[in-house]
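Today's session is about reading a structure prediction critically. Students often jump straight to the picture, but the first step is always the sequence itself: look for stretches that repeat, for charged clusters, for runs of hydrophobic residues. Only then move on to the predicted structure, which in these notes is written as discrete structure tokens rather than atom positions. Here is the chain we will use throughout the hour.
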Amino acid sequence: MSPPSESPVTSNVAEFTVSEISGALKRTVEDAFGHVRIRGEVSGYRGPHSSGHAYFCLKDERARIDAVVWRTTFSKLAFKPEEGLEVIATGRLTTYPNSSKYQVVIEAIEPAGAGALMALLNERRLKLEAEGLFAAERKRPLPFLPKTIGIVTSPTGAVIRDIAHRIADRFPVHLVVWPVRVQGETSGSEVASAIEGFNAIEASSKLPRPDLIIVARGGGSLEDLWGFNDEAVVRAAAASQIPLISAVGHETDWTLIDHAADRRAPTPTGAAEIAVPVRAELAADLASHNARLSGAISRRLGQERKGLFALARALPGIDTLLELPRRRLDEATSALAGNLRLAIGEKRQDFATKAARLSPGLLQASLRDKRATLRHHAVHADHGMRLRLDEARRRFDRAAADLKPHMLRARSEAARLSLQQLGERLARSEEAERTRRRERLDNAWRLASSLSPLNVLDRGYAIVRDEKDNPLTRAADLEAGMAVSLEFAGRQKRGAIVTDGAASAGSRTRRPRKAARAKAAADDQGSLFGDS
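Below is the predicted structure for this chain, in token form.
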């Protein structure tokens, strides 16, 4: 006999699945630590993931905790996490069941005290300074008297009123205000966009392009001014093609934009004083310069007048200056008459010499020579013409001999024989080409007949076509109730209806052809196929 089986051990402890216990732990942690603030050092931060979420750890000297910042929250953070930065993170604790870990989902993050902010600020300053953004040689001079000034500040604060009032007192110019938030999470991006927006204005735009930009804000704590330490703001200020004045905070307040700007003002009012001169002082300076210029001109004219009088006294009189020219004129007048008579005598002698060469005897002798030369050329011309005429006559006689009737008949007969031979060759070529083409056509027709699917139908096969007369080659193309046509040998077609479109190839059975005929003869139900 076999020993009796032992009964299973029973227990009153409840059983849980892994998912149930993980869910219970998750609810317990979230209920007990729904909202917490954790102080720790950022560790393992490598920037946001490709999904936009950020994963890192918070640690101290004895423990560490995983942290995650979702994408929607990360874009709103005023302070982005950085490796090694001590922060205070606000969020909620939860668990991650897939790896049995707990983590904090961060909703806000801030540096742990002013010391951390200063360390972060100093690290960012050294980084940007190493890139050359604070170099003195890249700073541009400010325009002496700008026509248009662009102001980047809050439109509702006292700063814009102080700047506008101060500029109106000193030298009124056109002001263009780009409204931004000067405190908060988006202040840095708005200020950077404003600087880039002023630089993007074209000279031909309806909105005037500023000659000078003032970035201004009143005083505040380091946290209040943190937006002006944003890296995007510093880079926008350094890349600005328009000279830029930084007037953020009071005289003791310093931000990174002060290093990148072309000029730093201690206060917003000081920026207005730097931007434009005092019109009354310019008018006074102009009047003073005008008075000095008028006095200098008067003194110079007096000195030049005295010098002119001294030179006039040293110059000789008019009679003294004209004495020698007058004597030369008298001598030339006296010699003119004798020279004229001498010139007339020379011209008369030259005329007589040339007139002697034009006597009638000389002219007749020259005429006789010209006539003899002309007769000689005429004889040569007649002889050449006769030669040309003889040559032309000989060529004409040769051409006329070629055009005699018996010559024309001989040439025509030769051309006729040549044309007849060409015709015979053409007829033979046409016949040979026709024979070759007929043989090629017969060969192609025999090949087409051997490849024609209609020959296959003679061996008991059929072609199945759909309603559009397209051939169907697969059983999967047939559906129950589908109308098809069957083409047999001799171009005979019959219509049919598919009774089972889901049958597989393995379930079909082939019935002998004689048995099928016998069954069709026994059943008085007519043929499956109707006329197409």
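Discussion point for the tutorial: The mean pLDDT is 82.
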